[in-house]
Amino acid sequence: MLTISLTHYVVLSALLFSIGLFGVITKRNAVAVLICIEIMLNAVNINLVAFSKYITPMDFTGQIFSLFVITVAAAEVGIGLAIIIAIYRNKLSVNLDDFDWLKW
Amino acid sequence: METSIYSVIAFYALAITILGNAALVVFARNIVHSVLFLAITFISMAGLFLLLDADFIAAIQVLVYAGAVCIMVVFGIMLIQRPDMKDTNLFNTQLIAGTGVVALVFALCAILAGRTAWTDLVATQAVPENTIQVIGALLMSKYVIPFEVVAILLLVALIGAIVIARDESSAIAVDEGVKANAHD
């Protein structure tokens, strides 16, 4: 029990991913949903770096993948906030339940 | 395999900090508090990366996530929220369905993680001491095409964010002003 194996990291990552997914499904504020997506991406990063250490320590595949994930997450936050600001200017709301233009 | 008692203690302390603060992000009723807890989550995750011998990723985590992303989100909140920040981060009506879906996802992941025979896959070598040199060389040789594509993606995201967030009504007013001046 007193050793940390790959399973510990995978379960921690699954727990964190679940918390993020719960937020994405149940939050009402669009910015909160964006934050929870960041938590999910970070959970994936933990997995990638743990696999990189335990399975391919000489190849660094997981670490380079997690670098790309971090870059894409930063771009995603910028675009997401821009979209939320543009919608807020039209609707004066960030409540996702108000964003139903595609519903008929 | 980690055998030192200190790394075991560090893992559990960091795991509790990460999970507790992530839960606070979801359950806080004030969105500004949520972002604060998010920053703590990101920084403790950098500690977890240090524990995993990924010092460069840990530095990038602090720089990009705790530094840039959290500040950008706070700027976004300040641009769009009403003056009163109380109760800005509430749940919608999907709580029960959401809990069910999340429990299902976690159960699936945990069962699969427990059933996989990791011991057959685990390598025996340790991670090299100088990770930054190896990562730099790999990014400029084997992964140079993805590296350039990601650079273009960042440029596109930058321009796209400016175009999307631009105030179109004031832009149209400027255009009409230019046209009116040309007409005169």
Q: How is this structure best described in words?
A:
- The complex is a heterodimer of chains A (104) and B (184).
- Chain A has a single domain (6-98), classed as Helix Hairpins (Orthogonal Bundle), CATH 1.10.287.3510.
- Chain A is 74% helix and 0% strand.
- Chain A contains 3 helices and no strands.
- Chain B folds into 2 domains: 5-142, NADH-ubiquinone/plastoquinone oxidoreductase chain 6, subunit NuoJ (Four Helix Bundle (Hemerythrin (Met), subunit A), Up-down Bundle); 143-184.
- Chain B starts with a helix and ends with a helix.
- The model of chain B has no long low-confidence stretch (mean pLDDT 86).
- Chains A and B meet through helix 1, helix 2 and helix 3 of A and helix 1, helix 2, helix 3, helix 4 and helix 6 of B.
The CATH first-level class of chain A comes to: Mainly Alpha
What proportion of the residues of chain A is helical, as a percent range? over 70%
Q: Uncertain runs of chain A with pLDDT below 50, 5 residues or more?
A: none
* Total number of strands of chain A: 0
N→C terminal distance of chain B: 79 Å
The string of secondary-structure elements of chain B, in order, is HHHHHHHH
Radius of gyration of chain B, taken over Cα atoms and rounded to an integer in Å? 23 Å
The total number of structural domains of chain A is 1
What's the quaternary structure here?
heterodimer
CATH fold category name of the largest domain in chain B? Four Helix Bundle (Hemerythrin (Met), subunit A)
Summing up helix and strand content along with how strands pair, one would put the structural category of chain A as: mainly alpha
Task: Set out the fold topology.
The complex is a heterodimer of chains A (104) and B (184).
Chain A: H1 6-26, H2 30-54, H3 61-91
Helix pairs in contact in A: 1-2, 2-3
Chain B: H1 5-27, H2 31-51, H3 55-80, H4 95-115, H5 118-121, H6 131-140, H7 144-165, H8 168-183
